[in-house]
Amino acid sequence: MKCLYVILMFLLCIFNFFYVSNTQLYTRIPKYDVKYVVWDFLSNNQINNCFQYELYDTVLLLKCWIQNQLKTVEIRVQNEYLSITV
């Protein structure tokens, strides 16, 4: 019985570790530096050969040639945050 308890506690610890490791940490960007952070993200992901389509005032779709593949990049402004999806 004690062995079962130890195994159960071990499994709970492992589950807790993986669950906690998936949390998100938002870091503050200085007020006028957001465009530079977005620029760095686009540059670091080699998003530079694109066609654009503005779906809405808050959604910009890009079709980009990245590493010999055509990929869709979505930049979306929602109520709470700016979202960039590659």
Order of strands, main sheet, comes to 1-2-3-4
Distance between the termini: 50 Å
Helix and strand pattern: HHEEEE
Residue runs with pLDDT of under 50 for 5 or more positions: none
Structural class determined from secondary elements: alpha+beta
Helix % is: 25-40%
Strand content: 25-35%
Number of helices: 2
Say how many strands there are. 4
Global geometry: elongated
Outline of the structure:
With 86 residues, the chain is an alpha+beta fold. The protein has helices at residues 2-21, 34-44, and strands at residues 50-56, 59-66, 69-77, 82-85.
Structural account:
With 86 residues, the protein is of the alpha+beta class. It has one domain (2-85). 36% of the residues lie in helices and 33% in strands. The chain contains two helices and four strands; from the N terminus they run H-H-E-E-E-E. It has helices at 2-21, 34-44, and strands at 50-56, 59-66, 69-77, 82-85. It has a four-stranded antiparallel β-sheet with strand order 1-2-3-4, with no helix packed on it. A hairpin with a 4-residue loop joins strand 3 (69-77) and strand 4. The model has no long low-confidence stretch (mean pLDDT 79).
